[in-house]
Specification:
It is built from 2 helices and no strands. By secondary structure, the protein is mainly alpha-helical. It has a single domain, classed as Orthogonal Bundle (Helix Hairpins), CATH 1.10.287.
Length: 69
């Protein structure tokens, strides 16, 4: 699944599923490596989404302070 088609919530849910599958220890090595790569991409996607949200909140707060002065 491409991360550019995902929401934060769907990426996080998929990441949780990937982690559960890796932790189960039932997947063969090549599947585990593939899952690890997918998980890494999902973590990066989620971190970017959170950073973007934090920046938006900071801007909203800054703009509100400027309007109140």
């Amino acid at each position: 699944m491409e991360t550019n088609e995902m929401t934060f919530e769907s990426a996080l849910a998929r990441l949780e599923a990937v982690v559960r599958e890796i932790e189960s220890g039932k997947a063969p090595l090549d599947k585990t490596l593939s899952l690890f790569e997918e998980g890494k991409a999902l973590v990066e996607f989620c971190e970017k989404a959170l950073t973007d949200a934090e920046q938006r909140i900071t801007k909203i707060n800054t703009d509100a302070k400027l309007q109140n002065n």
